[in-house]
Amino acid sequence: MSLLATLNEDMKTAMKARDKDRLAVIRMLKTAVTNDQIKLGHDLTSEEELVVLSRELKQRKESLADFQKANRQDLIDHVNHEIEIVAAYMPKQLADQEVKDLVLATIDKVGAKSTKDFGKVMGALMPQVKGKADGGKVNAFVKEALTNL
């Protein structure tokens, strides 16, 4: 079942349950997916759907950081709820140790010797973890591993 079909079903369920918050988030996700379909001119592949979901999740996490700086608890609670809803559509996230193992395996695979090989490692690693791990975390793990070589 495509993401769009899943969102349509979940939207109906949220309407019946009168869950306005969930309905609003699902509508935003559906709109984002539809806009990308129109922009690309075809139905989205699962990878393209994952890109849309990742972008939406990242936007909410950035908003959360801004609201925390401003000490706006009402907005923090609202965005945390939105993050939970969006995260439910994402694939299972990799644990930190799994990401570290992938980083080390990729470093060995590409033959990285120093921090100068950062781009080469990230280029090989990101397709493997796309949507399954936070890019910032991956970045930090790669820097740490390359520094310790």
TrEMBL record:
Pfam annotation, one family: YqeY
Protein name (database record): GatB YqeY domain-containing protein
GO molecular function: carbon-nitrogen ligase activity, with glutamine as amido-N-donor
Alphabetical list of InterPro entries matching this protein: Asn/Gln_tRNA_amidoTrase-B-like, GatB_Yqey_C_2, YqeY/Aim41, YqeY/Aim41_N
